[in-house]
Amino acid sequence: MALKLYNTLSRKKEEFKPIKENQVSFYHCGPTVHWTQHIGNLRGMFCADIVVKTLRYLRYKVDHVRNYTDVGHLTSDQDEGEDKIEKIARQEKEDPRVIAQKYIKIFEQDTQELNLAEPNQKPLATQSIKEMIDMIQVLIDKNYAYQTDLAIYFNVSKAKNYEQLSGQKPEDKLQDAGKGEVSDPNKKNPADFALWFFKTDKHKNALQTWESPWGQGFPGWHIECSVMSKKYLGETIDIHMGGIEHIPVHHTNEIAQSESANGVKFVNYWLHNEHLTVDNKKMAKSEGTSYSLEEIKEKNFNPLALRYLFLQAHYRSKQNFTWDLMEAAQKGFNNLINQVKELGDKLGQINQDYQNKFIKKISDDFKTPQALALTQELLKSSLTKEDKLATLLDFDQILGLGLDPSTLLRASKIEIPQEIQLLIQKREQARRDNDYQGADEIRKKIEDKNYQVEDTEAGPKVSPKY
Question: What does pTM read for this prediction?
Fold first, then answer.
């Protein structure tokens, strides 16, 4: 069954044909590690994970590279503002490298808890400065780049089909670029983007700089991904993925500089995931809606319940997040887990008909909502428990919900926080004293902390509310 995916470059669904038979080179734009990634960023990582897991399920050998941007990403994608990591480094009075490692550690813990597959390579931008300098020199030599007192820029008027990915007309692109702040009057075109910033003017106090043939400085954000994808995957790669916000600037610029420098097509298939909103609005720090995975866990939601929620929307569709939807996802996840537990731990045979249905759905541009819905159809079927379990575990290679019976057994051993245990003891004392109003008030405190109490003959039984 052919894998079909929506290629942003052609704006249509295409049958996937890799450069090398049964092998896939896959580059995914990773995070700029200057803060704790919010669940919107993590949804982007989840979407890439579905692609990787699907390809591997379909027996492709996937070389997956996901980078870390630890220098050069300014507060505006249009080459204006301050380096994001250095801004935080100054606020926290730390070395930028310490900041990067701090947030990489948090990010990797989050990806592990969401059951995301580890990439084959996780390069830091600062590990490829030499190769960036080499590619910039090639662009200068080929007359695609030019130097001013402040930076080295790529001349977008020299690029072929510069607007192909974004679909913008050249004049509209130039007009949009000219609307923002332009701090270098010597740029030839407003849309020209920086390949290398010099340690001067607004960047005279830059904390991370390197020697280059043109002067001390640091790379622009866009050149980093072009270089890292070439270094680890080659000049032409099968799939490049990122959020839709990267289409008009970052990915458009990657194509321009890569194809100009290398003289060959950069990427065959471009995939882009849509955004996660909160209450149908943009996720924003200023609004207090930039939720982290830690905040999800603090409300006693399982990280895999968040994955379950993510599975309910197609990667190219916007998905809305609310706490009510999160609660519904946790209940749906719990229901699935309980159904799987009832199947026992003996494996039968993978049912071919259900497997074919699953492959048909997931091979059609990664339709996770339909693939997830198939689990309930399977559980309600007349198959034996053993065959249901074997088939579900086959699905879970992509769904990633940790449905293996041995995993579920470990996860069921929940430790009740001491704070809750103390409230339980106080409630029991109130009941012994016939203070039923006080006991009810304590029960409410327990429930407000997302735990529930069931009174049994053997004593109170406490469990997470969801």
Answer: 0.89
